[in-house]
Amino acid sequence: MDGQEEDDSARSLGEALFRDILALIHSGGIAPGATLGEATLARQFGVSRGPVREAIRRLQGIGLVTREPFARARVALLDRAAVDDLFDMRVALEGRACALAATRMDESAITSLLAALEQARRRDLGDPDIPPDDFDFHLQLIEHARSPRISAVLGGDLYPLLRLYRRWSGARPERKSVAYQEHWQILRAIRSRDADLARSLMEQHIEKARANLMTALDASPTIRPAPAAHSPAVPTAPILPADQA
Amino acid sequence: MDGQEEDDSARSLGEALFRDILALIHSGGIAPGATLGEATLARQFGVSRGPVREAIRRLQGIGLVTREPFARARVALLDRAAVDDLFDMRVALEGRACALAATRMDESAITSLLAALEQARRRDLGDPDIPPDDFDFHLQLIEHARSPRISAVLGGDLYPLLRLYRRWSGARPERKSVAYQEHWQILRAIRSRDADLARSLMEQHIEKARANLMTALDASPTIRPAPAAHSPAVPTAPILPADQA
DNA sequence: TTTGGCATAAGTGTTGACAGTTTGGCGGGG
DNA sequence: CCCCGCCAAACTGTCAACACTTATGCCAAA
């Protein structure tokens, strides 16, 4: 009766719990530094500890929770070092994905993506209050790189973390227009089949995002560990704005 | 009494089982394409299904086993597409790691690594039958990049897979000398603090390894699915030669 | 002979309970 | 007043059993 939406896209409870707990952290229901115990979460979601264990295990796999052998799991703190590490990996993977896309995308896909980008820009800049569509340039581009492994890590692991960081730092809307411009430049490089240029552009683009997040993080130096994790918890999905950088 | 070495480096059974099953696949005890059932493995190792489930889950996480919701897990087939994907990711991550190392390594670390490289080269080329020391240039370099996330993925996930592929394709010893030379060039670029050059060199180096593996894979086009996975299984650790490319 | 459906079997997903370990607090001693 | 050792509560790791899903083999009908 309370929160327990069964997501039909996940066949197993563990998978669904992974998303649910991720959403909980996104929405701020759990806050970084808080401790999440298996039994507590199990009671909260009305399931047994098995699926919860799997979900936490996977959360640990993506580096969102830290845990030593017998200690309880804690949501990773959001400090500069972690952001730096995260972005190092993102630059590596997305730069390569961009180069691959420049080689593997066909003309129709490029024009289609270009059109989608333009449409998203219009809608986004014209009506700022409309949720910026869930069009995500980066995810689309990654998908077009046709590298299952890179797609899985980027889309399944890194991006949820990035969204989390963005939630705590706050994205600045005035950067959107320049971000769109950079996206357009990248696509142009891809259209001219210049893989090196496309990668370089993408790397610079992401480096800018890193710098942005860093300054935003400096404003609120460290996320405080948050008092308790016993909040009734709203299991509703977070309504974060789509990616922008 | 049969295979069940307790590795003290793993505090939980799940972790130990992860390594054990990995070793089993490495040693050829399970062979790609074979199906591994939880109950079977549980009986084989004398534990319950819980830890086995966690181990398989993690194996699935690194892409070594494929699995749809309710079907049994199968060891991933070793085809060209998988190798291509694997190396795309490796180029991305290790290229970046190399650039980071060029920035972050201090002089003493560089000279130390250089000396270790020279020592390994001598021992390896001089006494070909001696196991080439478990000195692994790539792993050392990755460690020096000081990026926990990249290190974890590369050292914990990708490299076990690479060793598996090399086991089935066979490494050619005549490539060792040229590999050493390339390693030396990379280190020289790092010493001169030329991050771009170091990355480029590393990328080319890995691309060569990819081409090598591809031709070796063409010789034996596809690994046959192997008849049964019920072999008594030798749980002894695999004695694979150290990395070389 | 081939094809369709069905019953059995195998296997995974999930659950609740038990054992071992860590952590926090409490009391006694210095 | 501070420090050390002990105790209890909480939590994780592990296990055996139940429910549900999928695959396999057989049998009958066309």
TrEMBL record, chains A, B:
This is GntR family transcriptional regulator. Residues 224-245 are annotated as: Disordered. The lineage of its organism: Bacteria, Pseudomonadati, Pseudomonadota, Alphaproteobacteria, Acetobacterales. It holds the Pfam family FCD. GO terms for molecular function: DNA binding; DNA-binding transcription factor activity. CDD domains: WHTH_GntR (cd07377). The keyword rRNA-binding does not apply. The keyword DNA-binding applies. Residues 11-78 form the HTH gntR-type domain. Keywords: DNA-binding, Transcription, Transcription regulation.
